[in-house]
Amino acid sequence: MTPLRTTKRYCWLTPTTNIRNADVSIRLVSSAHNTITHNTGTVQLENSFSNTITDVNGILIEQSSNDNIISNNTLTNNYQGIHLSGSSSNTLRNNRMIDNKNQFFVSSPDRVPSNFVHHVDTSNTVNGKPIYYWINRRWHGTLRRWICSARKLHKHKG
Description:
mainly beta
């Protein structure tokens, strides 16, 4: 494992760094092939790809951070659960979000359709309920209309 070099508030990481058992927030910019696991701080990836994140406290993936694996996290009572913004093709598996202010959020500041394409299955949950993340998918059967707000899903009347 590569040791962290630190000066005050910053760390310099070499490619393919493994970060384990830290209690600080981590921000990777233009970084790839890192493993971040068992950290009590939040993790932010910016313009980073092919990283693996497990067992952390809050996750923000943004600005062309593509092809990351986010798995086996329990995110409880944070400002942020998992936020994917302006990135694509990230894989989410076995993540539990419980009582966070913003549980699960996908956005694209520049409204590029590919920024909404991620691999999110029902092993990911919000307050114990599975996430159904569908892009361009037809549903055969009965599906009631729902309206999404920033924090809640409401049944549409009518």
